[in-house]
Design a protein that fits this description.
Blueprint lengths: L2 H24 L6 H6 L1 H14 L1 E3 L8 H10 L9 E3 L4 H24 L3 H28 L3 E2 L2 E2 L14 H21 L11 H11 L2 H21 L2 H18 L2 H21 L7 H4 L1 H6 L4 H12 L12 H5 L17 H29 L10 H16 L10 H21 L10 H4 L1
Antiparallel strand pairs: 1-2, 3-4
Helix pairs in contact: 1-5, 3-5, 3-16, 5-18, 6-7, 6-9, 7-9, 7-10, 7-17, 7-18, 9-11, 10-17, 14-16, 16-17, 16-18, 17-18
Length: 447
């Protein structure tokens, strides 16, 4: 992301966050209790980042601060480089940048949790998320199948053999689609229930019934599902495909839609695959055959992960500093490897390297606290929480995808994640108050 665009995102998030805080101060009940709990995780990460920037005496080398070790090594060669104080972070400017981004995402999540106060607000947000994913899928698929391969007015330079939408990387494109897919799927599965036909209405009455129900919306939603799956397939992202399958399975399991609808969904998802094979394009699963060679090559991810784990053992408590992976990993990489990695291609490992054990525990707690209420059942839960199931599917999808890529380092994905967490926080609040569960509009709700 360009610095100007990132700065604009941070400024906008600061404005939204300030407005949200002003609303919360005037009306504390506007922020769900679950949202307050979830905010502890990014708050912990921010605290770790601030602590990493605190100046420490370089004589405290026994603490094992990465910056002190590096400066001591340099001072052994250039004595003038010795300084009395140094922060823990190996690269303070990178840590400041990472803190600014994290603060921006946190404020966006806070603003979303305050803004999504009513069920209709959550439904509107869900429709926007589904529409966003459908646009990305349609745009990426069209550019790929047409051979045009542009991102708006700019010709693509990378990943010319895959669909990427408005993203540069195919994996980030597929990860975004996997997060939005459950909303199109949930809308398709919950909007198909219409009212019974009017007696004596004939063809005209049946047509009126169909238009009055939400079945047209279900048809549009199914088209969105097929388009999104097409985009995932054409991305040729193996982790993206696995994440999309997990997101769909989560939605089906939580909504408890039965075998018939599950079978219909499987058959429906086979349509884009068969259509693409009929077009005689690259086989969607061909990259799985090369997985072993890619992982074990001297430039593969297993090498990066192994080196990252070795580095984590040196500074397990506070890490090397938020945003410092590239600075820390560069001197450690093998000189035989021609590729310089800017990320670990595993957000969980990268968080452990940069923020230590506390950072990973905060992320794991955030994931657990966010999705657990969706899978639990209590007395009084009369119908499945459709929107909460969709949000949980999206969160689990990106958690899985982040095991093999750096999706959370691309601003569009953590911004969407912040909104999904806000939806889950609202669902937990509604359950606590025994309010109607968050669901897509269906025919019964429109009568």
């Amino acid at each position: 992301m360009q610095p100007a665009s990132l700065f604009a995102l941070e400024v906008c998030s600061a404005i939204l966050g300030a407005l949200a805080l002003w609303i919360v101060l005037r009306d504390p009940g506007s922020l769900p209790r679950r949202a307050r709990i979830l905010l502890l995780a990014p708050g912990t990460l921010l605290g770790i980042g601030v602590l990493q920037l605190a100046p420490l005496p370089t004589s405290w080398g026994w603490l094992g601060a990465p910056a002190s070790e590096a400066r001591a090594a340099i001072a052994g060669i250039v004595p003038e480089a010795a300084v009395p104080l140094a922060p823990w972070s190996l690269s303070p400017p990178d840590t400041v940048d990472a803190l600014a981004r994290l603060a921006a995402y946190t404020l966006i999540g806070l603003a979303a949790a305050v803004a999504l106060r009513k069920e209709r607000h959550v439904r509107q947000a869900a429709l926007v998320i589904a529409a966003s994913g459908t646009f990305q899928a349609l745009y990426g698929s069209t550019e790929y199948l047409s051979g045009h391969q542009h991102i708006f007015g700019f010709a693509k330079e990378h990943y010319l053999s895959e669909a990427t939408g408005t993203f540069i990387n195919r994996n980030h494109f597929a990860g975004y689609l996997a997060m939005t897919l459950p909303f199109s799927l949930g809308l398709a599965l919950t909007s198909a229930r219409g009212r019974g036909s009017r007696a004596g209405g004939g063809v005209r009455g049946a047509l009126r019934d169909w238009l009055d129900s939400t079945r047209p919306l279900a048809l549009i939603a199914w088209i969105a599902v097929l388009c999104t799956w097409t985009g995932v397939i054409l991305s040729y992202s193996r982790a993206g495909l696995a994440a999309a399958v997990l997101a769909s399975a989560t939605t089906l399991i939580v909504l408890r839609l039965g075998r018939a609808r599950a079978l219909a969904l499987i058959l429906g998802l086979a349509i884009p695959l068969l259509a693409l094979l009929w077009l005689d394009i690259r086989a969607p699963g061909e990259r799985f055959a090369a997985m072993g060679n890619e992982l074990t090559s001297r430039t593969g991810r297993l090498v990066v992960w192994r080196t990252t784990l070795e580095m984590i053992g040196s500074h397990p408590l506070l890490g090397y500093g938020l945003g410092t992976f590239e600075s820390a990993y560069g001197p450690q990489r093998s000189f035989a490897a021609p590729i310089r990695y800017g990320h670990a291609h595993n957000d969980w490992l990268e968080a452990l390297l940069e923020g230590g054990i506390g950072a990973v525990l905060a992320l794991a707690a955030l994931l657990w606290l966010a999705v657990r209420p969706v899978f639990s059942r209590e007395r009084g839960d009369r119908e499945p929480p459709a929107l909460a199931a969709c949000a949980a599917g999206g969160v689990l999808a990106i958690a899985l995808h982040s095991l093999t890529d750096f999706c959370l380092r691309i601003p569009a994905i953590p911004v969407l994640l912040a909104v999904l967490l806000a939806i889950l926080a609202r669902h937990a609040q509604d359950r606590a108050e025994r309010a109607p569960t968050l669901r897509f509009p269906d025919a019964a709700s429109r009568q």
